[in-house]
Amino acid sequence: MDDIRLGAILLEGGVVDEAGLERCLAVQTLTGSSRPIGQILVEQGLLDEATLKRLLELQRERVETARAQVVATGLACGALLTAAAANGASEIVVGEACPARIRVGTGWRRLTDEQMSGPEVWDLVRDLMGSEVLESLAEHHFVVRSWSLDGIGRGSATAFRHFAGVAMRVTFAAAEVPAPELLGVPAPVVDAVRGGKGLVLVVGERGIGRAELLASMTQLAAGDPSTYVVVVGDEPLPVAPTAAMVERRRYGLVPAQQAAALRSVVREDPDVLVIADVGAAETFEIALRAAEGGRLVIAYIDAANATAALARVLNYYPVHDLPRVRSSLAAVLRTVFVRQLLPDVDHTGTAAASELLVVDETVREIVRRGELSDIAMLLRAEGGRAGHSLDRSMLGLLQAGRVRMEDVFARAEEKAWLLERTRDLQPNPR
Q: Regarding the domain delimited by 77-172, which CATH topology (the fold level of the hierarchy) does it fall under?
């Protein structure tokens, strides 16, 4: 891995000599090792900005290549999963007539060069999910199971049929549950969970680490030993043993199954209900009624931001029922927390950006009226008590040098606002 360091690339190309590099490293050490070596090289007159930019691009290319250097030693289930875990993958997808691919950070890359045959994929499905899954797959066309292998990890696996044959998607669960603060969960959301009542909406798009985020919030909710927590979902949540009683229920993959599962859970009268997805009218209505009953409900919904999440919820209902729903939602909603993952500055990992809506009397009145566009205005206001927008969070990451401008600009809603505030921002060499 030494050949991906900027110093090694400089020496390899003869751009600087060892004495010049050592002098710059000494300067870096004297300044607390906080300044990038590339910046010091430019200041010392050993490089110009254009050359440094080309070298950094070369370094990024080598990093991308190095991240995929742990290749599978075979097509057996254990070999593929071991290689995927060694690459830091969050999921792996295998399918007939395709090479195995893994998701690392926010991007996809190949794990194998050769395409996989039908029998090889069937063997993987059977080894990981059990031989009985083949019959279920033939009948239902997709099957979801939890998996766990000693020395490799655990997670969920989905086998499904497609036009070319059969495929399988395998996700990896975190070995340990990070504290909410380490996942970027703001203090008002933590306070709302500890408060033990109301509705906390968790919002995001695919690939934000939903299982890990919900597991962290479940762990937080289970901090009181007198609490009864029920988690409804099909993905395993790696919740550590706790003094509280934490139970899991299967959710199902169609709204009718999900609604039936939630009704059954609510009849058990838990203190906390964690729902992996409220993406249908039936399931959200049950979650809303559960929160009205004095429970804490932590529910996930797919959306890009807080306003879109609330709009999606209200679109579940017919027009004549909206006044009731808006009134109920305003009464029980505590916070809306949006999490998005961006490629980091080196494109070798991720950086978390967030949007936060704290529900106070102003927000409750907006929800009752259904004028959701006012929420976006509140979140854009500087120093507002209602929370912060996703654009403001991404701006903070950009100013800290953790992400690239092009990645932030592509996701920003208020692009002119972002450009105005980054006009004098200098790029952070890496």
A: Beta-Lactamase (3.30.450)
Q: Tell me how crowded residue 402 is: count the other CB atoms within 10 A of its CB.
A: 19
Fold of the CATH domain 180-421: Rossmann fold (3.40.50)
Spatial distance between the Cα atoms of 7 and 23, rounded to a whole number of angstroms: 12
The pair of structure tokens assigned to 398 is: 């950009």
Q: Kindly give the pairing relationship between strand 228-232 and strand 272-275.
A: parallel
Domain ranges of the chain: 2-67, 77-172, 180-421
Measured distance CA(277)–CA(79) in Å, rounded = 32
Question: Taking the complete model, does pTM exceed 0.70, yes or no?
Answer: yes
> How many whole angstroms separate alpha carbon 261 and alpha carbon 250?
7
Report CA 330 to chain centroid distance, whole Å: 27
Question: For residue 201, which of 344, 307, 75 has the smallest C-alpha distance?
Answer: 307
pLDDT, one tens digit per residue, over 300-345 is 999 999 999 999 999 999 999 999 999 999 999 999 999 999 988 8
Structure tokens at 306: 């807080």
What residue has token string 């932030």?
A: 408
Among 402, 300, 350, residue whose Cα is nearest residue 89? 350
Check if the beta carbon of residue 218 is closer than 8 Å to that of residue 194. Answer: no
pLDDT value of position 31: 58
The pairing of strands 350-358 and 387-388 is antiparallel
Which of 280, 316, 297, 322 has its CA nearest to residue 202?
Answer: 297
Question: In Å, how far from its chain's centre is CA 263?
Answer: 28
Between CA 271 and CA 295 the distance in angstroms is 5
> Residues of the chain whose pLDDT is less than 70?
1-7, 13, 28-35, 59-75, 236, 238, 240-241, 424-430
Rounded mean pLDDT of the chain? 84
The H helix count followed by the E strand count for the chain is 18, 14
Span 178-205, pLDDT tens digits: 888 888 899 999 999 999 899 999 999 8
Residue type, 371: E
What residues pair up with 203 in beta bridges, in sequence order? 301, 338
- Compute the distance between CA of residue 319 and CA of residue 296 in angstroms, rounded to an integer: 27
CB of 350 closer than 8 Å to CB of 344: yes
**What are phi and psi for residue 226, nearest 5 degrees?**
-90, 5
CB 234 within 8 A of CB 156: yes
